[in-house]
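Lab manual, section 2.4: Encoding a predicted structure.

Procedure: take the sequence of the chain (435 residues), apply the prediction step described in section 2.3, and record the output as structure tokens. A sample record is shown.
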Amino acid sequence: MLEVDIKHIRLVAVTIIALILTLVSITDVHSQGKLRIAAIVNDEMISVLDIENRLTLSIYLSKLDNNLETRRRLAPQILRNIIDDRLKLQEIRKNKIEISQAEVINELRQWEKRAGLSIGQSTELAQRLGIDKAAIAERVEMGVGWRKLMRQLFLPTVSFSEQEIDDIIAEEISRRGQPELLVSEIFLPLNRTESAAEVKALARRLIEQIEGGAQFSDIAHNFSQSASAAVGGNLGWVRPENLAANLTQVIERLRPGEVSKPIPTLDGFYIMKVENKRAIEPFIERSNRPAAVTIHQIHIELPPSPTSDVKASVREKARAIKTQARSCAEMEDLGKKHGSSLSGSLGKIEVNKLSPLIQDAISGLRIYQASTPVEITGGFLVLMVCERDEPPVKKITKAQLREKTLNQLGTERINLAARQYLRSLRRAATIDIRL
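Recorded output:
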């Protein structure tokens, strides 16, 4: 095992193969009758069982396939996450941050809600997954304590002059009608135990999981190392020019629902997702909740290797169906009569989770208006929006805009300070990885 001293940091190179073999053979730990030490963070032990518990929980919450390949790929990031959490917990104790039982219970309820659980089901989940319930409790306690510590340390330092706020609001008003984006992020930091190529490879694997059906917010919550991870990576509505230039260049090309490739920065790699786009309206406050639609479709199937004449004939059939459909009930009947087994209700879906092709097809449709036929692989679709669920909006006054601006700026400053503070904790720590 090779040790390197860098600015009081003792880091031991991680042999990933050894880590993987240890993680996938946790029964070996029990057979030895003791917990094997995976790492020591400032004289505090992290066991292989700690990693195994977190890995199992994160895979479940991210709705990933719990197989050997997934565990191999995600194990190094899980270890980094646990190390960061231990550093945070140590700092919380050092600063004597008091965490009440009521705060922990409230945070646990929020955690259960994000995980899709009913109140009190976290203990049952731990039993079902075969993990120590402390794996959940520690994360919940750390989240409460870290937020309180960051506010205690940095909230007193956050101040803005009246002129500064006036200038920001004036600029906001001057940009009325310009675009802003609802953006989510996943941030994977660089560290001294892995190369940039390895972190980029992890980012690519996470993107593959998202493209395969995993929810971006679930992946962000369990693997991102940004402050936004607590809210599923949601950055809220942002102006492209307010982000770093390399991030702006990428997200401006993304359509709602699209996810970026890994974006390199000096600190690590970002994965960005544009949830929605809209025009800036300073005195209108909208919910961050994305719009949703209830859709009914009729799928007209093409035969294998159709000629252009056959394709034109099927398209005309789809157009004829479009003219007959004036309600979702009629779509149901027409689908049974003329459509394939793929016809029917798609249920309620968030618009940003639809493909760009389908988003375009339904964007201008009124309720109960059938779309023009949409060509897809193997056939044509006729779509109808049966219901729209738009996020609530309300008008706000200039005083309310001022308060909103202050809150946003304060949160941004504290989040930036929190990231810098954690980076300093990593630099000052003695981290001994023993696998």
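Check your result against the sample. Residues 3-154 form a domain with the Triger factor/SurA peptide-binding fold fold (CATH 1.10.4030.10).
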